[in-house]
Amino acid sequence: MLAGYFAVRQAAEHRATIERIVANRLDAMERLQPPVDLVKVFSRQVPSLMACEMFGILESERDIFERLTGLALNKDANSENILETNEEFRAFMRSVFARKRTQPSDDIFSELVRCGKLTDEELVATAVTLLQAAHAAIARSVAFSVYMLLKERERWNVLRTEPDSIGAIVEELLRFAIAAQLSVRMALENVELGGTVIKAFEAVAISFSAANRDPAVFAEPDRLDLARHEAGRHLTFSFGIHQCLGQHFARLELQIALFRLAQRFPSLRLAVPAEDIPWHTDRDIYAPGRLPVTW
Question: Which of 59, 133, 215, 240 has the most crowded Cβ, counting Cβ within 10 A?
Answer without folding.
Answer: 133
